[in-house]
Every structure is written in C-alpha cells, then in structure tokens.
Design goal:
Blueprint (H helix, E strand, L loop, with lengths): L2 E3 L6 E3 L3 H6 L7 H7 L6 E7 L6 E7 L2 H13 L16 E7 L10
Antiparallel strand pairs: 1-2, 3-4, 4-5
Length: 111
C-alpha cells in the first residue's frame, strides 16, 4: 500500500486503490477531493469493433463523459448480429471519431 497525503484536505489515501484509479485526478489528490472539485481532465475514449469477413473494423471514439461512453458501448453491444447496421439509438450519443481501421472483406484479393 502506497500512502499519499492529499494536497487539498491533508488526508492520507492509497494512491493505488481501486477507487483512486476509477476517479483519476492528480497523484497528490484523494478520490473524494477529485470528485468534489472535478479536477479529473482526462478524455473518455472507447474502442468498438464490428466483424466484417475475416478482418474486423475497429473505431476509436472520444466522448464528452463516461456515462455517454458507457451508454454508447452498451447500445453498440445490444445491436449485434448478422448484417445489423447498428442504428438503434447510437445516433443519440454525441461522439467524435479519432481513428478507424476499416475491415476488408476481400482480404486475399479474391472476388
């Protein structure tokens, strides 16, 4: 256990705890102060995969909040299946695409 002292409230906290990793923040801020003061500034990024032939399409998406990212991924996973366009509710969540590796159904040069 690695204890640190919070720079805001002077309480001791474990900087390697599960809660600290979940809320983020600077290394010298306890989880409670990070939540109260809103000092976590990291971006929320998720990767989603769709199968297409033998190579999957991978998209890296950036969201405004963790709840929007979780909502999108939950909806994405619920709309799976053969030839599914994955349109059921995905347009309701705002995101920005920051990367993509599109699948290639013709990966061996055959028609």
């Amino acid at each position: 256990m690695r204890l640190s002292i919070c720079k805001h409230c002077s309480d001791a906290f474990d900087r390697n705890s599960r809660r600290k990793k979940a809320v983020g923040g600077y290394i010298d801020e306890c989880p409670s102060c990070v939540e109260e003061l809103g000092t976590e500034t990291s971006e929320t990024i998720r990767g989603v995969i769709s199968g297409d032939g033998k190579m999957a399409c991978i998209q890296i998406l950036k969201f405004d909040s963790k709840s929007e990212a979780d909502q999108y991924c939950s909806t994405w996973n619920a709309n799976s299946g053969w030839n599914n366009r994955r349109s059921g509710g995905l347009d309701d969540v705002k995101f920005q695409k920051i990367g993509e590796n599109a699948g290639n159904t013709n990966h061996k040069g055959k028609l």
